[in-house]
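Appendix B, example 12.
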Amino acid sequence: MINSCIEVIEGCTDAAAFNFDTTANTDDNSCIAVIEGCTDATAFNFDTTANTDDNSCIEVIEGCTDATAFNFDTTANTDDNSCIAVIEGCTDAAAFNFDTTANTDDNSCIEVIEGCTDAAAFNFDTIANTSSILLLV
């Protein structure tokens, strides 16, 4: 005589579920819905609720993400605290008003005009902004 009894194997019997059990013959209400998303914990858009990867993961790219910063990085998606504030001023080292702290030129540079800048001198030059040395021989 052949035993016709079939052992009860509990599990998720929903073939569309994340944890479908092909060996189960009795549903135990343990089925988990498929939630697609990025499952890479190192990705920029990691989804903690996802249980099925949908190939949407975006690589983390560190850099300055402040669009108003001097060194803004358009490719960065994660700020690395490297942003440098914009400091406007004259960036031409040959200019009269060169600003060593400036990193962004504001078109304020003034040409060096040499001449006598001593208002009490005989040869005072009203347009001079830099004293020149006059050598008499």
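The longest strand covers residues 10-11. The two ends are 134 Å apart (CA to CA).
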